Amino acid sequence: MSKAVVLLSGGLDSATMLAIARHQGFEPCAITFRYGQRHVVEIEAARRLVKTMDISEHLEVEFDLRAMGGSALTSSLAVPKGRSAAEMREGIPVTYVPARNTIFLSFALGYAESLKANHIFVGVNALDYAGYPDCRPEYIRAFESMARLATKSGVEGDEPLTLHTPLIQMTKSQIIACGLELNVDYSLTSSCYDPGETGLACGTCDACSLRLEGFRENGINDPVAYHS
Amino acid sequence: MSKAVVLLSGGLDSATMLAIARHQGFEPCAITFRYGQRHVVEIEAARRLVKTMDISEHLEVEFDLRAMGGSALTSSLAVPKGRSAAEMREGIPVTYVPARNTIFLSFALGYAESLKANHIFVGVNALDYAGYPDCRPEYIRAFESMARLATKSGVEGDEPLTLHTPLIQMTKSQIIACGLELNVDYSLTSSCYDPGETGLACGTCDACSLRLEGFRENGINDPVAYHS
User: Fold this and answer.
1) What are the residue ranges spanned by the domains of chain B?
2) CATH 3.40.50.620 fits A3-217, yes or no
3) ipTM at complex level
């Protein structure tokens, strides 16, 4: 089996992607980031998923993006609540973290190279997160082109690196339907941007709103506990 | 003055580049990485340079690449000593760190975005380090293309980001000549890959060999202290 590095935040999307990577015949090696996010509880979710899904390799990388500022996810800026789908699609949200996906993918690239893996799975989504520049298909293709030149395998002529984005054009409802088919246990996941001290999902930030709507469209209840 | 993010390791090349960025009219903002390198003494050099050259912004980012393995710079693998220039140019050396420049540039990109800076200076060199895939001009151009799509400014249509690589085609001797003209104090810098517990340069690793040869070609002594 070929190894594939899978970016695993611990949220619904990356949990589904972990199952997709395995379903496609890869041996998934997970990478998770502790970067100063206020929703650090997602890392516990990533560990639960790795354990339950019997993933043999899991690298946790730690750094602090708070010093750079500029995002509600890594500062005391308020996380927007109760926004409609239309409002979420307007402009770049305050939850955008400067260059976050580029930083994540760069570590994934180093990890892939050290594992001699030529596949990276990243759960970006161009529909729900249309406002994030680093979730767009053209960005993903540009990163892949750069990555093919960045590493030993790019020089020594092995199989070129492939960036897989299986969720990029799926709605949240389609992602959940796909995950249920692959027996993903969504009770283990954590999506909320603003879980507070209880660790329970707030139910009203963009991530919670999209998630709740996705379960509703599948006609089932979200198995995680909500604060309200 | 436009701000420019300058990758500052504390070595001879990045010290020169800091002076070049200022000479070109930019306000340099330095970024330095503590990544588990065995030559962590270079960070002290970076701080000395920032202080002496009166740089107003300096971000230090910390993460650990040792968990990924695969390089003599971040493990107990032996650093090669006493190699000729021809030997250094053969293949990819064991001091190559998987995806290191991509990781460094990604953080620089986030820092630039948070500073609203559209310029990044990186001291890659395609002559001395021909064996490093992430020092090649085609890699740099690919990173720049990706970076222009990755960030807010790429979406909102500001001035596109420019990656400056003023040293890319210069020999070590030319870099030193340029730095001397700009009054760089090379006694503050640290280049050695393997300084050991004394913190003194070893004089025989690739970095020391190239540096010593560069000073010799300029007809002057390297002002840093050597172990032997």
Assistant:
1) 3-217
2) yes
3) 0.91
